[in-house]
Amino acid sequence: MKIGLIGLPKSGKTTLFNLLTGSAIATARYDTGRAELHTGVARVPDPRVERLSALFKPKKTTYASFEVVDLAGIAKGERGGLETKEFRDADALLHVVRAFPDEVAGPPDPRRDIVDLETELILADLEVIERRLERLEASIRKQHKEVEAREQEILRRLKSALEAETPLRAVALSREEAKAIRGFTFLSEKPILHCLNLDEKAIGDGPAVEAKYGLRDIAGRPRTRIGWVSAVIETEVAQLAGLEQQAFLADLGLKEPAIHRVLSDCYALLGLVSFFTVGEDEVRAWPIPEGTRAQDAAGAVHSDIARGFIRAEVNTYDDLVAASGSFADLRTRGQLRLEGKDYVVRDGEICHFRFNVAK
Fold first, then answer.
1. For all residues of the chain together, what is the average pLDDT?
2. What is the pLDDT of residue 32?
3. φ and ψ at 3, to 5 degrees?
């Protein structure tokens, strides 16, 4: 699963990309005009993984992760970067919004920047729909095709929504309609997190900044979230460890790095949940789409396990922690379940898959 990182020049986007992925891409003080593509992997912090690792003391601990793709800042009215395959293929968008003063860009105006970005997404989608409708109308005139007529009907409804400045993520679609337009990879249909990049003085006041700029109505829109972080300060926090980091966070009025919440919000926007596998060799969080069946979850571990799936041995995280990691105790308590291939795996469950692959 992939997050597309977008934002205006000098919003602190590349700094946030580095923070999310642990990269060291050079940041530019001024807009260079170069459209450089960067990709990286973001690890999702999860205290449950830490606790399970402490219980089992494995040789390896692996957190859930997702891909992040970053492109150069996008100026108003210039949608070239939005038309790239990398952004079209993104499953959700992370919009970095400047909420700090800048001597070149001037005072911040997060609401304006959010509206401008949403407008660019809407216009990009509108262009795609208009081109497709032209081709459909020509095709239907020559030979009426029921499938194309249905597609035309859906696209006309979406076009009306876009012309009313409504992003497609706010348009209710049936499962059939969503499937019909999936190939278009519309940008304004993607879930989005608008992340305020705060001035260091406001790092502990994210909700107040959100209220100050009148963003609460935006946060209430379908598949839309507002987050906040001070990318520069969080970069300093990431370089500290243990008690030193805790003390620094306490001085800032934070219980944990704000970037943890941003990562968790991105994970939720992607529609992902985690199940765990545990043992002496590895404790691992596996990302799967919410609603995944047990056999498909087994396939996330290895295709052979899915192919030879017999049963999933399942228990909850809370029960395993209460049993101090003892599966024998879970069996005694009747807290270990055997589930079939169509069982829907829930967030936080520990799974052991029974399988057999004939040679």
1. 89
2. 47
3. -105, 130
What are 341's two structure tokens? 């291939």
Domain annotation covers residue 221: yes
Based on the fold, state whether residues 253 and 137 are members of the same structural domain. no
Q: Is residue 199 within 8 Å of residue 230, measured between CB atoms?
A: yes
> What is d(CA 223, CA 301) in angstroms, rounded to the nearest whole number?
29
For residues 151 and 169, state if they share a domain: yes
**Which residues form the domain of 334?**
291-355
The pairing of strands 282-289 and 60-62 is parallel
Residue tagged 């966070």 (tokens): 249
The answer to whether the CB of 313 falls within 8 A of the CB of 337 is: yes
One domain, residues 315 and 337: yes
Q: How would you class 99 by CB atoms within 10 Å of its CB: exposed for 0-12, middle for 13-18, buried for 19 or more?
A: buried
Residues ≥6 apart with Cβ < 8 Å to 353: 294, 298, 301, 305, 309, 311, 312, 313
CB burial of 147-186 (b: ≥16 within 10 Å; e: otherwise) equals eeeebbebbeebbebbeeebbbbebeeeeebeebbeebbb
Average of per-residue pLDDT across 195-202? 88
What is the reported pTM? 0.88
